[in-house]
Amino acid sequence: MTIEDIMWKTTAAVWESDSLEQAARTLAKQGMAGAIACDSEGEMVGVVAAEDVLFGLVQGRKTVREVMRPPQPLPVHARLEEVAFGGSLLRAVVDESGRLAGLLTKEQYLAAQAKASRLRLKQLEAMFNAAHNGILSIDAKGRITSINPAAERMARTTKEEALGRLLTDVVVPSGLLEVVRTGKGHTEKYRVGKRVYITNRSPIIDEGKVVGAVGVFQDISEIEFISNELETVKRIVNELQTVMEASSDGIAIADRNGAITRQNQKWAALFPDAGQGRIPAPLDQVVRQALDRCQPCSMLHQGAETGNTLIVSAVPIIEEGGRGDRVVVYVKDMTEMEQLRAELEETKRLLHTLSRQEGADLIYRAPAMAHVIAIARQAAAVDVTVLLTGESGVGKEELANFIWKQSARSGRPFVKVNCGAIPETLMESELFGYEPGAFTGAAKKGKKGYFEQADGGTIFLDEISEIPLHLQVKLLRVLQSMEIMRLGAEAPKRIDVRVIAATNKPLEELVAAGRFRADLFYRLNVMPIAIPPLRDRKEDIPLLVDHYRKRFAEKYQKPLVFTDGALAAMMDYHWPGNVRELVNAIERMFVTSAAPVVDEDHVAKWLHLEPPTAADPVSVSEVVPLKQAVADVERQLIIKALHKAKTYRRAAKLLGVDASTLVRKAQKYGIQSWGGEEDGFHAASRD
């Protein structure tokens, strides 16, 4: 809106020498709120408003000259929002040549400003409601003052339900309250359930005081997914190009007309004189055949340039609908066959190794373990927090090492921390570091904590359940904001760390018992991976035995052979210590074995297994009190049942009693036990 749109388009004027009565009659006759005042030569010298004339008459003034004001002309095409009207009641409006174009009263100016403000308010409201991003504001007391439809959908509420309520009663997280408290805006990415959001929070300041805060947040779950997919596609394309360049064959991708869309350097070397960007004439026939038949075709070709015999294969790329418009052409130089045969043998060896351990020293065959490795590989592809669970000795540290090596951070630090091995009094300084002089005995230069040492890389927090409650809060802040606070420091420090945690204890039960913070558990449990115990993946035992047999044979210069019976005995064993116990048992066999062959008897001896015995009836050797005899038989039955079933629950089923009864009687007879599978107990006492 411009001045021209709201002004009075008039050139009416009065003379500066006119009397005020004459000027009043002129203004009344014209029906105007004011006029231009001119001098004797017709030049504009001021403006006079009707109010000025009336006040002049009341004060006893005589002429227009005594009450007129400076004209302060406004440009006719000036935009309303660019004009400051000032204290005058009337302003002249001039065109580009400086000629009078009209008059503008303050009343007109204020009315136009009010109209423009209402229009802008409606525009802002329309933008607010139409915005794809969620927008929400609160007042200084944390009550919601506005919420747009997008925010309503994300928060699963309505405007009527949300307005006037406390922020924490409607949405999570509550970062806007921190903005109100500190007066500082910030940007944060957070997760609610399976959805990922990014929010920008800013304070609302009036006259230097924080009166509220506004947050703009966006659901980026799909964007994150697409971004990850795009990175995966880029990586695949890069891998394919690398494969093409590394191949000893000439490879080209061409369309139906023979135009090459991609080729490797070997192809260019084989056909240096071919037409630019096209399949050479002798080879185009196999391309057409492959596309017409929609199946691979091959031919022999004698190279005119080198005289070498080439094997040419064309493989059509079948699109949806069964039609093929592109083809991959492979050209193999037979003179390189011996080299290729050697490379093939090497490739077979590598493939065999990869099929067993995927290049990360992981040995497995069991489907349960293959599933774990597949999940770990997916977790490694993104910067997500991983929680490894499983019994002691199952290989949590090895799997963490695998995830690090498979991730984009494989070239950066990998810091391993055993939380259970650090004294509680030193844990905070070890994890987060300290400033010089932070406490008595502190190093003069201060010290970096484990998180700072892992900056840019990965930190592995083993036995995470051992972190005391008062430090769990600080660890939670690190995971949420990627900021650490050294002991004695005045300001936090930003870090970039990928966290992998591990525990052999059920964190859910620790949370229920109040020994582990629920919010920290949920922050760690973004990508949980449960590693099965060795007894649930016994297919891996022969592979593990073979691997460590070779390792210890080289270490001790003492080859050992394990019979099928020995392997069968090891596969029948329960392995409460899992892989760690298996490795230790194999090494003990190498150290103590006097024979070159290990059979099932040796395994039974080293693993303290009881030899099978026939079921004998109860025998009585002497007369004892009946109550003592019953107790002796009961104790022996409990021990035998526990040895056979391995757990109290299964043993109770064998004996036909409740598990609680069996536990009580085992405690009565002093039968020792330790934590383990299912119901949490394994028999440890033997006759």
UniProtKB/TrEMBL annotation:
GO terms for biological process: regulation of DNA-templated transcription. Residues 362-591 form the Sigma-54 factor interaction domain. Keywords: Aromatic hydrocarbons catabolism, ATP-binding, CBS domain, Coiled coil, DNA-binding, Nucleotide-binding, Transcription, Transcription regulation. InterPro entries: AAA+_ATPase, AAA_lid_NorR, CBS_dom, CBS_dom_sf, Homeodomain-like_sf, HTH_TyrR, P-loop_NTPase, PAS. PROSITE patterns: CBS (PS51371), PAS (PS50112), SIGMA54_INTERACT_1 (PS00675), SIGMA54_INTERACT_2 (PS00676), SIGMA54_INTERACT_3 (PS00688), SIGMA54_INTERACT_4 (PS50045). Residues 120-174 form the PAS domain. It comes from Geobacillus zalihae. Residues 7-63 form the CBS domain. NCBIfam families: sensory_box. It comes from the Bacteria. This is HTH-type transcriptional regulatory protein TyrR. Gene3D superfamilies: 1.10.8.60, CBS-domain (3.10.580.10), Homeodomain-like (1.10.10.60), P-loop containing nucleotide triphosphate hydrolases (3.40.50.300), PAS domain (3.30.450.20). Residues 330-357 form a coiled coil. One of its GO terms (molecular function) is DNA binding.
